[in-house]
Specification:
six-stranded parallel β-sheet, TIM Barrel, 261 residues, two-stranded parallel sheet, globular, alpha/beta
Length: 261
């Protein structure tokens, strides 16, 4: 086990201060599935609004929606994503809810992705950042090639929830290699609990203590995620837990503001 086993017995920073019980310090939730009806996240406008109101209760008033783009499963395009975004924006407006919602995507590294990258047929965060993911079942052999191809186009790759890839749990070196290749890492906030399992939590805490994460996201799909997130926020002082990481969500906020302006 090595570096994994030496973590046991260490305790996370427990949140006992009420003023920490919000996520306003994050600025933007940059990974979620709030757009209605286009992937395995929110299934309709009503659910989207419910999830957004839950985020607002936690202090988050800005989000970049990142629906899945996955060949044969979630065949989203910039057009389908833009259309769902318009529906959500109009729905929020009709309800009088002030919530800054933008859109991007979470791209599965699969057989179609390279052609999308080469054609610049992408939805990026702040016209720069590209959120990518792999299968939970098996490592993508194209990961490092894709990281380079994205960079060659002038974009910045971000690997979503690296702590959830079980096939990496026996080697810390791979995370260092991914970072050294110029790819940023994004933590799922629920990973610091046992929501995805003990091994995912251990991996997340290892990466946190090594200062490896650049972004955090809720990866919110449904109300079960929302309720679990509320529990995590009550239990942990997340901002203090992440003190060894340079979390860039707030600076992303500034870049998004420039884009919107």
């Amino acid at each position: 086990m090595g570096f994994w086993s030496n973590l046991f017995g260490k305790k996370e920073t427990v949140n006992r201060n009420s003023h920490h019980q919000n996520l306003a310090w994050i600025g933007w939730d940059m990974h979620n599935h709030l757009l209605p009806g286009i992937d395995d996240g929110s299934q309709n406008l009503e659910q989207s609004i419910e999830l957004i109101q839950g985020l607002q209760e936690l202090g988050i008033n800005h989000a970049v929606c990142t629906p899945h783009v996955m060949a044969g499963v979630h065949n989203n395009t910039p057009e389908t994503i833009s259309n769902a975004h318009k529906i959500l924006v109009e729905g929020l407006k009709d309800k009088g809810i002030e919530f800054n919602v933008q859109y991007s995507a979470e791209y599965m590294i699969d057989d179609q992705l390279d052609s999308w990258v080469q054609a610049n047929n992408l939805c990026l965060i702040a016209d720069k950042y590209m959120l990518i993911e792999m299968s939970y079942l098996s490592e993508s052999k194209a990961l490092f090639t894709m990281i380079k191809d994205i960079q060659d186009k002038g974009y910045q790759p971000i690997l979503a929830h690296p702590e959830r890839y079980n096939y990496y749990h026996n080697s810390f070196k791979i995370f260092e290699e991914i970072k050294n290749a110029g790819c940023m890492l994004q933590l799922n906030l629920l990973s610091i609990s046992k929501y995805y399992g003990e091994h995912v939590k251990t991996a997340a805490l290892t990466l946190i203590r090594s200062g490896m994460y650049d972004f955090v996201g809720t990866d919110m799909h449904h109300t079960r995620h929302l309720e679990a997130l509320k529990s995590v926020v009550r239990k942990y002082n997340i901002q203090d837990l992440l003190k060894d990481c340079t979390i860039r969500n707030a600076s992303l906020f500034q870049e998004m503001e420039k884009k919107i302006a």
